[in-house]
Structure formats: structure tokens, C-alpha cells
Design goal:
The chain is built from 5 helices and 7 strands. It has 2 domains: about 100 residues, no CATH class; about 70 residues, no CATH class. The two termini are about 25 Å apart. The strands form 2 sheets. It has a 5-stranded antiparallel β-sheet with strand order 1-2-3-4-5. The protein has a two-stranded antiparallel ribbon with strand order 6-7. By secondary structure, the protein is α+β, with helices and mostly antiparallel strands.
Length: about 190
């Protein structure tokens, strides 16, 4: 993600107790552009200037950068919030990018069973133009087992507020990893 948000002036405030874990990115003396990540009862609530979002998984900073598609899946399971609007042209761009990445990844190992199955799946997806329900039905029924759900093009441009939130995820991860590394816990 790259929302172009500058986090350099934001403080990371952590409140960790038996009931909830809270990570807050905020500028000193103001709540403008603040983002709060609240783990409670197995869920993550994100609040602040970029909306209120509910995810059906907890956030645990300090790992690699977050996978936006993984988190988009978790927002859809636990709520009816819309993460973006279906765009057939954007879907075709996503599929094209997936095919190019797949070919680059396998670099000549085109006899690989996962390559062939995945390439055919992505090519089949190109047949869908602007019929979102039919596309979703096809994907749900014919997704190759070698693909994770976050590898499936959605045809949805992400909500700008969510881009900022995912960048905030990564900023918290970066700061926690840096702190742990500085303390010799890497």
C-alpha cells in the first residue's frame, strides 16, 4: 500500500492489558489524522479519522507487512461494510497483472502443475466482463487449491480510507520490529 500518508510526526501509543490491546498512531496535541487499532475478544476494531472498521481477526504487530487482500477478506466475513466498488476494467487489469506475475515467478518452469492450473484459471477469469455475481460464483467454485484467496483479483478498487489504515498497519509493524530489534529480540 502507499497512501502517501506521512507518519513521521505520529506517536505510537500502546495500551496493552488483559481486556484489550490498543495501538494508537496520533500526532501530539491533536486527534487529527489519528488511527486506533483495538484488539478485543478476537476482533480488531479500527477507529479514528478514516472511519470505523471491524475485522474478524486480531492484529498482532511486528510481523511482515500486512496483506491488504487478507484483511479485506476478514472485513467482509464479519460485517457488511463495503470495501470498494466492482469495476470490470480494473478487474481485467488485476487479472493481467496476476498472469504477468505468475509467468515471472515460474520463469521457464511452465511444466509445473500449479503454474498450468493457475494460468488457466486466470485466463478463464478474463471471460468475465461486468457481471460481478457470476464472477464471484465462478471463483468460489473453481479456485485452484494452490491459490490463496488473497491471490484472486476482486475487480474492486480499494476504499482510500482503507489504504491509509493498511499503511498504518505497516507503520506500527515497522516501529514494533525496530523497537524489538533495538532491544535484541529480533
Amino acid at each position: 500500500m502507499n497512501s502517501k500518508m506521512d507518519w513521521s510526526k505520529h506517536q505510537l501509543i500502546e495500551e496493552l492489558n488483559d481486556t484489550a490491546k490498543i495501538w494508537r498512531l496520533k500526532k501530539p496535541d491533536t486527534s487529527v489524522q489519528s488511527v486506533n487499532f483495538i484488539n478485543i475478544d478476537g476482533t480488531l476494531l479500527v477507529t479514528g479519522d478514516y472511519g470505523r472498521w471491524s475485522f474478524c481477526r486480531e492484529f498482532h504487530p511486528g510481523i511482515e507487512d500486512v496483506s491488504p487482500h487478507y484483511w479485506l477478506e476478514k472485513i467482509r466475513i464479519g460485517s457488511t461494510q463495503e470495501t470498494g466498488d466492482f469495476d470490470a476494467k480494473y478487474l481485467q487489469e488485476q487479472i493481467k497483472d496476476k498472469i504477468e506475475t505468475l509467468i515471472e515467478t515460474f520463469e521457464g518452469d511452465y511444466q509445473n502443475e500449479n503454474f498450468a492450473e493457475t494460468l488457466q484459471f486466470y485466463k478463464d477469469l478474463q471471460d468475465f466482463d461486468d457481471i460481478e455475481p457470476e464472477y464471484i460464483s465462478y471463483v468460489n467454485g473453481d479456485k485452484p487449491s494452490c491459490l490463496d484467496w488473497e491471490d484472486i483479483p476482486t475487480g474492486k478498487k480499494m476504499n482510500t480510507s482503507l489504504e491509509v489504515i493498511f499503511d498504518a498497519f505497516n507503520e506500527i509493524n515497522r516501529r514494533v520490529k525496530t523497537r524489538e530489534s533495538d532491544n535484541g529480540k529480533s
